[in-house]
Structure formats: structure tokens, C-alpha cells
Amino acid sequence: MFSSASMDEGFNELLSEFTVLINVHHKSLTSLVGYCIDVEHVGIIYELMANGDLKGHLSEKNLYVLNWQDRLQIALDAAQELREVIRDVKCTNILLDDKFQAKISDFGLSRAYPVETVTHVSTDNIAGTPGYLDPEYQDTGRLTEKSDVYSFGIVILDIITESADRLTMTQVVMVLKECLTIG
Question: Which residues form a coiled coil (predicted)?
Fold first, then answer.
């Protein structure tokens, strides 16, 4: 059962994201379509991303296999937003539209901090996804552009290895050697 404080925090985070999304318009970010707030429910409706998330296309179960050109373009599309602190860069937050153009989702809380005036954000509440989190951010609570670069490096590794599952370093080396051999 959630405590009242955690429910209030979740509600405030959602309202913060909504407030930020109203003013954010960029081709590399998911667009806000609508919202609903009532006594018991709060929801934000984003544009339809017909091809789901990147993680779904890095699975052998997926019917559409991404070729190298698709993967490169998805990486370039996603990288467009790394000029700003995103906070939770990962394969499930990179969504693909009907033409496989990548857009970043779940970025609203990061936009509450203007990058021009803030070089980092310090927080006691470390947020993010294990496996994608920058170890320095985990240790210090300082979220910087470098934190997202680290996380994006993990996304690139996922794209290269065609897997959003964590690989051992030996497996990574084997996959990269194979990629270099193929050219």
C-alpha cells in the first residue's frame, strides 16, 4: 500500500512533467496530445508511436529486424536531445514512430531545470534504471550531461549487440569483434 506522502510525491511529479510538456515542442521528443485529471486519476496522453520502444526491436521475438542503417538513424535521432539533461536515457524511453524515427519519452522532470543556468542537479532521490545509471551519479547524487552520455553509451551498446539484456564484458568483446569483422 502506498503512503499518502508517496502518493503526493507521485502526483506532484506527474504535474511537474505535465507543466513542462505543455511548453516543450521538438521533433526528437514525444508530443503531448492531452491530459485528464480527476479526483482519483491523472493521465497524460502522448502522440502515438506506432512502432513501440527500441527495446522491443532489440529482441529476437520481434518480427521487424532493424538493419544497421535503421539502428544508426535511431541512435542519431535519440542523440539530438542529449544537449539537455534527460535523466533516464534507456531503450524503453526511446520510442519509434511509423517511419522508425526515434523520439525521447519520459523526460519531463528533467526539463524543470534550465540547462543554461544549471550545470548539474543534486538530489537525494536517485532516479533512473539500473544498468543505465551513471555510477558517478549513483555515488554523488549529481546529475549532469555526462550522466546521460554514460546512459546513452549503454543504449548504443544495446543497439550494437541487439539486446537490451545486460551482457558480460566477455560477451560484449565477442560481439564487437564480430561487428568489426563484418565491417
Answer: none
User: Phi/psi of residue 179, each to 5°?
Assistant: -60, -40
What does the pLDDT read at residue 118?
A: 44
* Residue from 93, 99, 101, 95 nearest 76 by CA: 101
Q: Who contacts 125 (Cβ-Cβ below 8 Å, separation ≥6)?
A: none
Name the more confident of 161 and 140. Answer: 140
* Collapsed DSSP state (helix, strand, coil) of residue 117: coil
How far is 99 from 88, CA to CA, in rounded Å? 24
Residues with a known catalytic role: 88
Identify whether the C-beta of residue 28 lies closer than 8 Å to the C-beta of residue 80: yes
Gap between the Cα atoms of 92 and 104, Å rounded: 9
Check pLDDT > 70 for residue 114: no
Q: How far apart are CA 177 and CA 95, in angstroms?
A: 29
- Can you give the pTM of this predicted structure? 0.73
Listed by start position, the domains of the chain span 4-182
Return the CATH superfamily for domain 4-182.
Transferase(Phosphotransferase) domain 1 (1.10.510.10)
Is residue 103 a contact partner of residue 92, using CB atoms and an 8 Å limit? Answer: no
In which element (H, E) is residue 14 found?
Answer: helix 4-22
pLDDT tier for residue 124 given thresholds of 50, 70 and 90? low
Select from 150, 142, 137 the least CA-distant residue to 120: 142
